[in-house]
Amino acid sequence: MALAFDEFGRPFIILKEQEQKARLRGLDAQKANVAAGRAVARILRTSLGPKGMDKMLQSPDGDVTITNDGATILEQMDVDNQIAKLMVELSRSQDYEIGDGTTGVVVMAGSLLEQAEKLLERGIHPIRIAEGYEMASRIAFEHLENVANKFEFDASNIEPLIQTCMTTLSSKIVNRCKRSLAEIAVKAVLAVADLERKDVNLDLIKVEGKVGGKLEDTELIYGIVVDKDMSHPQMPKQIEDAKIAILTCPFEPPKPKTKHKVDIDTVEKFQTLRQQEQKYFDDMVQKCKDVGATLVICQWGFDDEANHLLMHRNLPAVRWVGGVELELIAIATGGRIVPRFQELTSEKLGRAGLVREKAFGTTKDRMIYIEHCANSRAVTIFIRGGRLILSYFFT
After folding, report:
1. Confidence band (pLDDT; 50, 70, 90) for 86?
2. Topology (CATH) of 24-146
3. Mean pLDDT, to the nearest integer, of 277-298?
4. What start and end residues bound the annotated signal peptide (predicted)?
């Protein structure tokens, strides 16, 4: 296809091999659109139900994803047809609004298109078919209202919620542990839910995974898990009644924003520079100690001298913690994120009943558990298992 202009400057399009192209009109065009929607539904149909099969998807980069989630499958597919793209949007909308049923909604839409094709061949206008589907939708909704059962539950009786959650795990690759996983999911949601307002903030639920162990080792932690370890190996591995300083300022001397050069030609000048730098570290650590902090969590890193000084001052520290984790830690512990040491006060410290470092297996992987927080509404689902299990959870 190329763009050209006539002698009056008006643009027109030149199509290559135009004699071999044809334009579909009327019933043929409608059937082509229906066929595109049915093709997408046919791909997902085999992954629906208890005996549904998972799909193995390979990206152009070679990354392999195994899933039976309809939204994930369609998102990985390279779809060109506009009607097929509408099916992809349908699945994405279902995932955004409900969070489940992404495969079922596409398969159902494909079945409706299949029945609509038969009606089109009988000469029924598409608008009449759409009106019939809308009428059928209202009747089906009314019938669902009549046959629906209401499950009563409260914080002390969560068995109905667990049974409901187990039905959504029957067709997954984790069905052998569906009882324990359903309990974890229900308890995590109830921990962050406001039952009076019927409001759930799912952003307070963090899902963390670590390769290794068994799926049965998956646990629910009423607090935050950070994939870091103490900055110094000789720092305490367990801190009770921790008062946490959450910092976004680094443990290092201030750096000028302009280009600078320091000439050191004598030992005295070097000693003066070293003492000045050590004084900066001393002041930073002392400010944390003065407000009563027993643990420092910093978004940035700090060099060996600051790390050594923190260890000698008996002030455990965790460095290179991401911004999302910092926000969750602040929410869970009731602390404030402090951007400058001068603004650090005892009122801005977060509080947790227990902070501990836990090692996994023989690989010496370590993670920080922050538990029994002042505000326990933030929880973490910590998943163990092989790479296949973790890739399933995080798609």
Report:
1. confident
2. GROEL; domain 1 (1.10.560)
3. 85
4. none
